[in-house]
């Protein structure tokens, strides 16, 4: 820890053969062991799980979605009820995104000007104008431990001019976000944009660092580009960020992407894959995914993973398959629990490997095991 | 306990001013405190709840549906996997119904002959013939603690001739069920039919007692008749049953119906109301039901019931409403947990009232409080 901060990031160990790091991020609602995976709680709930069940997966920090919560039930209502932690009954750290990505992916007819983004709500079609200052105000009302700056997300591939324009705007918006911040008990993270262009990524990182934030995210990846392209950007973007501050790869990803991200120096991840795939009957395992509706599981007395401590793995594969065949809610719930547990165990194994100086072989093993996973 | 039985029913206390009884039913997978409410686990799961969550509601015995489990995944598969307890991960008592009511209510084109019932599966339209002997074989494969005899259920109102015909057939089928029984570690309960005719009910009870069973159910009620009609039948049917054996009122009902049933000497109940209503955003409370989608709950920081220990009541009404407005799975799960906890607490309060000799005032209070509940 070389930089004074209200949200200290302690680097406990750095791997010698890769850029992997083992750290601890100190936040108002607790300490997060990194590398960390954040389950997504879009609407104030990790879909299908009670808070007890989320805790049991090993999660130490959740992600909440500013876009969704601002539209319903409203950040004013959540603030009135004591903030997002109290509202959803989770007393550990929360990171809220800024809404930038959801405006891009969900909002109809989104139109971006220098002032902010105008979009139609996916709920009722009403027109909403969101400025960087609004995003910060909403996130301060939600009371998350980490707020993200509002960024201008554009589709990939795109022209270098469009990428640069969106990136420059994102940087100006980041500065406005920092300026708008009032709460001192909420970390503010900036987002490095620049598409698949290494030079833009480095320029963006440098300018954001100059403004100064409590942590840095790498955004706009895992939006359809081949994984190798994403890794190539991480190879340049991660080293461009301060070594003594947390790095967060947004919206990524498959188990192998997490391992590859850690190898490149990423500390934090979030993704809907474990829960979304769980709801669709796909179970992650150390040997690749299983489609639990498959007939081959119909009479299988074994659990999904014999060494997994989760609630789903107290049951047979036959039972899990039956729940999906019978369209029972417990099926999606149990597989979401299993998949989140799988992701948390993968993070725990990565942390242990970094601590023990065995991350290089951990990486090699997972490249073998997890290649060919669902894309 | 005056009768020797493999499944002893201990009468601990009888109320002096009503017919209410406090007992303990000894079954292969444990002891059930009566009066008892059995949550319904139709397809090998109490809809939306993990087994841990079912245990936390206070339930000591579950109901499983022979009709559903026989069609999917099949009783042979469940037997191969070690029986229904192991399949669903519940190691306490289970009662399975016989399929009679589901054939009546779900099967297309059901046709009953003396041999058995022929119906079309609601899943794939295939024609299935179920004899009393098949129902017992299936329930023995499932391995429940209590099996119900197959009965011939008919619609109400109906002619006295049709009622008598179905009742007589149900009695003959009950005798065939007893004859077909092989397992000695499974109690067999008979079902008293006879519609809304007190005389038929008494005749049916007498004939079933003559054959001899481990317990007796009162069936064919709560199928649309006014509650007073049901209470009137209970007034004659319950006293017609052996005092030293358990009495089970099938498929009933509203909280007030449970209290009225206990007052008439019923020991066991099952009903889908707590879970089905929970999924539809209705919360039971001691002061009547709450519709949780209602706007009046939008900013309410209070729990559904302040003194309720359930998972849902750790949250505000505002949060529960938000979950339903946002169509989140956790809403139905939390309200199912709350409603099952409400039913179990009501049973616990009734048991305590009988023990303390205060059941008469408990009954009077609940007649005041719960009248006007949803019908």
Please describe the structure with a list of short key phrases separated by commas or semicolons.
3-stranded antiparallel beta sheet; globular; homodimer; 375 residues; 2 domains; 9-stranded parallel beta sheet; TIM Barrel; alpha/beta
Q: DSSP helix count of chain A?
A: 14
**DSSP strand content of chain A:** 15-25%
- Kindly, what is the distance between the CA atoms of the first and last residues of chain A, rounded to a whole number of angstroms? 37 Å
Structural class of chain A: alpha/beta
Class of the largest domain in chain A, according to the CATH hierarchy? Alpha Beta
Largest interface: chains, residues each: A-B, 39 and 39 residues
The Rg value of chain A, from CA coordinates, equals 20 Å
Helix content of chain A: 40-55%
């Amino acid at each position: 820890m070389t930089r004074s901060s209200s949200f200290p990031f302690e680097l406990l160990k750095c791997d010698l053969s890769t850029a992997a790091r083992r750290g601890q991020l100190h936040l108002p609602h607790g300490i997060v062991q990194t590398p960390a995976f954040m389950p997504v709680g879009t609407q104030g709930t990790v879909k299908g799980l009670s808070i007890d069940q989320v805790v049991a997966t090993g999660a130490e920090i959740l992600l909440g979605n500013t876009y969704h919560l601002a539209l319903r039930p409203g950040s004013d209502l959540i603030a009135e009820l004591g903030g997002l932690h109290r509202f959803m009954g989770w007393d550990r750290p929360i990171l809220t995104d800024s809404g930038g990505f959801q405006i891009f992916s969900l909002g109809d007819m989104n139109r971006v000007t220098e002032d902010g983004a105008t979009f139609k709500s996916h709920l009722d079609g009403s027109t909403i104008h969101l400025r960087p200052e609004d995003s910060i105000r909403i996130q301060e009302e939600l009371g998350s431990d980490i707020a993200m700056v509002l960024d201008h997300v554009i589709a990939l591939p795109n022209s270098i001019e469009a990428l640069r324009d969106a990136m420059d705007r994102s940087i100006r918006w980041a500065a406005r976000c920092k300026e708008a911040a009032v709460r001192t008990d909420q970390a503010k993270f900036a987002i490095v944009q620049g598409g698949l262009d290494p030079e833009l990524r480095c320029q963006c990182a440098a300018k954001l660092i100059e403004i100064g934030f409590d942590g840095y995210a790498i955004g706009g990846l895992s939006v359809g580009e081949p994984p190798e392209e994403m890794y190539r950007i991480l190879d340049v973007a991660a080293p461009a960020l301060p070594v003594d501050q947390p790095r967060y790869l947004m919206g990524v990803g498959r188990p192998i992407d997490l391992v590859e991200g850690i190898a490149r120096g990423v500390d934090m991840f979030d993704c809907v894959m474990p829960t979304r795939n769980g709801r669709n009957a796909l179970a992650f395992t150390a040997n690749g995914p299983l489609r639990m509706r498959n007939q081959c599981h119909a009479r299988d007395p074994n659990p999904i993973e014999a060494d997994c401590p989760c609630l789903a793995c107290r049951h047979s594969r036959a039972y899990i398959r039956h729940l999906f065949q019978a369209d029972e809610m417990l099926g999606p719930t149990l597989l979401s629990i299993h998949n989140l547990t799988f992701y948390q165990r993968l993070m725990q194994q990565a942390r242990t490997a970094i601590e023990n100086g065995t991350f290089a072989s951990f990486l090699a093993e997972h490249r073998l095991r997890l290649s060919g996973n669902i894309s």
